[in-house]
Amino acid sequence: MCECGTIKLWHGVVESSENSQHITDWYAPSHFTHGLIMAGVAWLLWRKWNLFGGKPSRWALPIAVLVESAWQIAENTPMVINRYREVTISWGYSGDSIVNSASDIGWMTLGFLLALRSPAWASVALALFLELLALAVIRDNLTLNVLMLLYPIDAVAAWQAAG
Q1: Is pTM beyond 0.85 here?
Q2: 33, 74, 102, 126: which has the fewest Cβ within 10 Å?
Q3: Domain of residue 64, residue span
Q4: To which H or E segment does residue 81 belong?
Q5: What percent of the chain is modeled with pLDDT above 90?
């Protein structure tokens, strides 16, 4: 749990030592979006291979949880933590708490389950809304996070820092 000794339902201050330490924060929508994306990928793969009548099987969600869990582990390695500090707006990032990582997996699961029960256009619209909301409020989102981790752009870093 957070070194602060408490568990909060919501912590909305991104540039703080408590970011990614509580149940939800401004990065929870990106994990929800992970679920939307993984459901779409599962649907495409199952359809392409015509497995289980072309619809994701009971194994699709456990596979998605495994992928998200692997990301949670990787995200908390010293190499990735240092990369976040070097090239993203998460300069003071110290890794996620176990509470936050478990919550992120839960958000991904909710996104996955919602995507399986919704039309594709609704999942895409929701993902775009969540990306734009986070972009407007904290100048960061899943898209920028991936971009800055893989291919940092000074102009993006400067824009994010100006917020």
Answers
A1: yes
A2: 74
A3: 28-130
A4: helix 78-87
A5: 61
